[in-house]
Automatic annotation (TrEMBL):
Protein name as annotated: Uncharacterized protein
Top-level taxon: Bacteria
Length: 44
């Protein structure tokens, strides 16, 4: 499974800062959780 997420935050430099401080980590946690759940529910 491959996920491609395309997004752009508003507010120029402030949006970039928010991305680095909050958004990127949140997205990484969401997809890590999904991966763990898929592995748990559908073991190889």
């Amino acid at each position: 499974m491959i996920d491609r997420v395309h997004y752009q935050l508003p507010y120029g430099p402030l949006g970039e800062l928010l991305h680095r401080l909050v958004v990127r980590g949140t997205l990484e946690r969401i997809f890590a959780f999904r991966r763990r759940e898929l592995d748990r529910r559908f073991p190889a």
